[in-house]
Amino acid sequence: MRRPLLFLDVDGPLNPYAAKPERRPAGYTTLRVPRGGGTSEVHRTTSLRRRPLRVWLNPAHGQALLRLDYELCWATTWMADANRWIAPALGLPELPFVDFGDALLQDRPDGVHWKTGPLVDHANGRPFVWVDDEQSDADQVYVSTHHRAPGLLHHVDPRIGLREDDFRTLADSAPSSGTSRATGRGRLAGGVSPPRGFRSA
């Protein structure tokens, strides 16, 4: 049986872009991406500046992700550029990515995140967990309504990124064909909420 998918965002979960800009979190390194070398929405907002993009990454996250019983897949505005810049810094192999096409950054009138529909389409009935910092209740309702297998949303605070407790929760909550769907923003099977404390991964 194929493993469930883990849809992984970059900015927020891996790059805690909302952390205090003068204080790089412990355990992280700084990656400088030449302007135009990444497609992150966070970076688009600073496109008028000429300096390289600053990305904070924790190299330990790569091995922690590979130990999870999921098939990893990028779900980020970086798309193919995640394999060029982010994967090598984390020690990850080249991963498949969701090509958002015309849906990229296009707001929906129903309040559902622009990634949600393409992720459900990409999963095509496979169980998945989506790790991101921008999900809402509307996204969970959409997934529960339009996806015929478990689809769990795991919210990560972009001020702190993924932490040890997040990896534990993901490991313990890998969905299968018999797993209940999540029932609320940022919750996984069994009603386990993502951690709020600062824990290094």
Task: Give an overview of the whole structure.
With 201 residues, this protein is α/β, with parallel strands linked by helices. It contains six helices and six strands. It has helices spanning 41-44, 60-67, 81-90, 116-123, 137-146, 164-172, and strands at 5-8, 29-33, 53-57, 71-74, 128-132, 151-155. A four-stranded parallel β-sheet has the order 4-1-5-6, covered by helices on one side. Strand 5, helix 5 (137-146) and strand 6 (151-155) form a beta-alpha-beta unit. The longest helix has 10 residues, at 81-90. The chain is globular, with a radius of gyration of 16 Å. The chain starts with a strand and ends in a 29-residue tail after the last helix. 38% of the residues are buried. Residues 43-48 and 177-201 have low confidence and may be disordered.
